[in-house]
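Page 42, continued from yesterday. The earlier attempt failed because a stray header line got pasted into the input along with the sequence. Redoing it now with the clean sequence only.
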Amino acid sequence: AGPRQDLLAQEKPLLVDYLKRQGKLLLLADPATPASWGEIIAPWGLALSPGRVIDEVSYAFPDKFSPAVQRNQYLLGAVTKSLDTTFFPNARAVDITAILKQEIPEQDKDKDKVSPIQIVDMGLTTRSSWAETSSGEPKFDKDKDSPGPLALVTLVEATAPLGEKPPGQPLDKRTRLVVVGNSAFASNQFF
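This time it went through. Structure tokens are written below.
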């Protein structure tokens, strides 16, 4: 949880290979999570957004840098139905990669084309949130900051990384990743 060091050169290919063989990964990423972890999730269509998430409506008072995901902001009921309000201090947003953003319109045009990757944003901030990328007094800058709602928890299920042909295994054999833009929420320090 909350990796603070880059993956070692010999660790990275092992983790990449494990994920390609229907591996599972839970990544709790903080703003200081090293880039090598972002490189691990990128082939699966995910990116860790720069900056820290601010939510002006739903947060752990008095810290707007501690967004709260309310029960009704959780999706995928079977997984999140027992969760109540959850705080994500110092969180970063989980986004989809530019490559996946290009692929989505192509799928809309070609209804027969099926992506090997399915992504579900499981926990979202409010529309009054953004990813603050500058230091100093927080203020939304439409040219630099990403507007909300933002995903703080994202699930990926995939038969293959982007751009790769799925192997011949049954379709129920899938790689699964859950990426959370914060590790401190797991400590449950607010309750």
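Notes: The longest strand covers residues 117-124.
Reminder to self: strip header lines before submitting.
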